[in-house]
Amino acid sequence: MNEPLAPQQIPLPSFIRRSNQQYRWSPWITLAILLVQVLVFLGSSIYLFAVIDWEMASILDDPPAAVLVEFTQAAVLLPFALLILLCLVVCLARPRPGWHMAMIAESLILLVALQVYLSDRNQRLAERPLLFVYMLGAILVIVFMNSPEGRLLLGRKPDDIHPGQHG
Q: Which of 151, 135, 136 lies closest to 30 in space, CA to CA?
């Protein structure tokens, strides 16, 4: 079977010239989207840590349940922020593995968010509105990274780099 043509391979009418601008900006758009997602997770976590009444928690030997819930909600976001930050660094160094790593990270975010949505009826791990924002963000990143513009980060397939040489 024939594989579908990549956006760069589609023939254009003679009056339209192909530009390299799209490829040049594609990695930076992806990195910016991932950075925004990291900032959302970190910002939410910092906000949730800021609303904790630390004086009440430090005075009592056994902190109240509300403090523990707020602390848990803030701490749950930090691993995701670090994971997406790691994906961002890998995307800078090696775009192809970084793309795959980012897709796996976004899938993990969706998997955990869906599990929390279905099992956390008391909203101990995440407030529902924030959970919906995290899920929407992960879905939008996955949709963008699977679009032709986002797939440009992958570059050519390793087989296509040297088509004249056979190993």
A: 151
